Amino acid sequence: MALKQRHKPSLAKLTTLGLGGTAEVELTVRKPEDLEELAKVLMNGQLRPFMLGRGSNLLCPDGHHDLALVRVASPAAPDRVEEKNGRLIFRAGAGMSLPGVLGWAQKAGLSGLENLAGIPGSVGGAIAMNAGSYGTEIKDVTTRVRLWTPAQGLFWKGASECHWGYRHFDPDITLGKFMIWEVEMALEETSSDAVKKAMKATYDKKRETQPVTARSAGCIFKNPEGHSAGLLLDKAGFRGKDLGGVGFSELHANFLVNHGNGTSAQAVELIRQAQEAVRDQFDVNLETEVIFL
Ligand SMILES: Cc1cc2nc3c(=O)[nH]c(=O)nc-3n(C[C@H](O)[C@H](O)[C@H](O)COP(=O)(O)OP(=O)(O)OC[C@H]3O[C@@H](n4cnc5c(N)ncnc54)[C@H](O)[C@@H]3O)c2cc1C
């Protein structure tokens, strides 16, 4: 069997937050030929499929779940496609790490991704979340996305044909669940030193204000229109507030951290309490940015 299968994988081990029980199976697709077999497994309908990147934006439930986690294993470096008007167009597999793409871009002297330094996860996850920071979103450098569905197989979709929003990507297909297979991006050709300096500046800024090495899933809540979620949580008394083994970070109130012995139930309850407090005190609804699996 070409499709790699691993039974009863630990959700905690597959996510940066490190919470959650087990799924039924993890299926890793390594090449396009594996997709036919994946379609058969998914179409028999016994398990709920979930497209998993590197688990850096997920809150997984405790206990065992009838889930088939689907992952893409991609080559470790992007493919150059063409140089045009001072820009390089390249393709990166969905399973490649986003920091890996940034490292490659830095060495190649390609500019456009500098503000995303410090965002963990995969290329596929970055597209699915339209990941961004400091005014840049992944959509800004994306030209095309190659998608897969069991019914349609692989097909390209132009970035301008997709709907993008704040931590939102919708390729506008009516066929239900899709997998991001690879992504085409365009970056400006400049010098490696300039890109390195800018990426370092971004990362240094984040290190000062975010718990970048703690077990977290990044920001738990989206910033509501006209507000900073972190500031609202801070004012509501949630900076540094713990419940069991989880708590909001002292450094950045919008980061929920697993201190090592937390449970998903505790995280969900603390999130609920924070939403309630912010609603009661400021009449603002905090919408979660993290995906509840
Ligand atoms: C310390 C830290 C800092 C962070 N900082 C930022 C930040 O500054 N800005 C920001 O935007 N985010 C940030 N994040 C959140 C997270 O890193 C991003 O959302 C990231 O892009 C998620 O990628 P992933 O591969 O880990 O996706 P996962 O967490 O595995 O999945 C996230 C979503 O993407 C979907 N998905 C993943 N891969 C695919 C695929 N191949 N096909 C279809 N769907 C797929 C999943 O189904 C899920 O809905 C941070 C997280 C941490 C831990």
Number of self-contained structural domains: 3
Count the DSSP helices.
6
Order of helices and strands: EEHEEEEEHEHEEEEEEEHEHEEEHE
CATH topology of the largest domain: Uridine Diphospho-n-acetylenolpyruvylglucosamine Reductase, domain 3
- Terminal CA distance: 27 Å
The percentage of residues in β strands lies in: 25-35%
Helix proportion of residues, in percent?
A: 10-25%
Query: Using DSSP, what is the number of strands?
Result: 20
What binds here, in terms of ligands, is: flavin-adenine dinucleotide
Instruction: Please tell me the overall pLDDT.
Output: 95
Q: Name the CATH class of the largest domain.
A: Alpha Beta
Q: Strand count, sense and closure of the main sheet?
A: 6 strands, antiparallel
Work out the radius of gyration: 19 Å
Shape: globular
Spans of at least 5 consecutive residues with low confidence? none
Q: Which properties best describe this structure?
A:
293 residues, alpha+beta, Uridine Diphospho-n-acetylenolpyruvylglucosamine Reductase, domain 2, Uridine Diphospho-n-acetylenolpyruvylglucosamine Reductase, domain 3, Uridine Diphospho-n-acetylenolpyruvylglucosamine Reductase, domain 1, 3 domains, 6-stranded antiparallel beta sheet, 4-stranded mixed beta sheet, 6 helices, 20 strands, binds flavin-adenine dinucleotide
Task: Give structural notes.
The protein has 293 residues and is of the alpha+beta class. The chain folds into three domains: 4-72, Uridine Diphospho-n-acetylenolpyruvylglucosamine Reductase, domain 2; 79-209, Uridine Diphospho-n-acetylenolpyruvylglucosamine Reductase, domain 3; 216-292, Alpha-Beta Complex (Uridine Diphospho-n-acetylenolpyruvylglucosamine Reductase, domain 1), CATH 3.90.78.10. Helix content is 25%, strand content 31%. It contains six helices and 20 strands. The protein has helices spanning 34-43, 98-108, 123-129, 192-209, 229-235, 264-282, and strands at residues 4-7, 22-29, 48-51, 58-59, 64-72, 79-84, 87-93, 110-111, 132-133, 136-137, 142-149, 153-158, 163-165, 168-170, 179-189, 216-219, 242-243, 246-248, 255-258, 291-292. Strands 6, 7, 8, 11, 12 and 15 form a six-stranded antiparallel beta sheet that branches. β17 (242-243) and β18 form a beta hairpin. α2 (98-108) packs antiparallel against α4 (192-209). The longest helix has 19 residues, at 264-282. The radius of gyration is 19 Å and the shape is globular. 42% of the residues are buried. Flavin-adenine dinucleotide is lined by residues 16, 50-58, 72, 94, 119-122, 124-126, 128-129, 131-133, 179-180, 212, 216-218, 291.
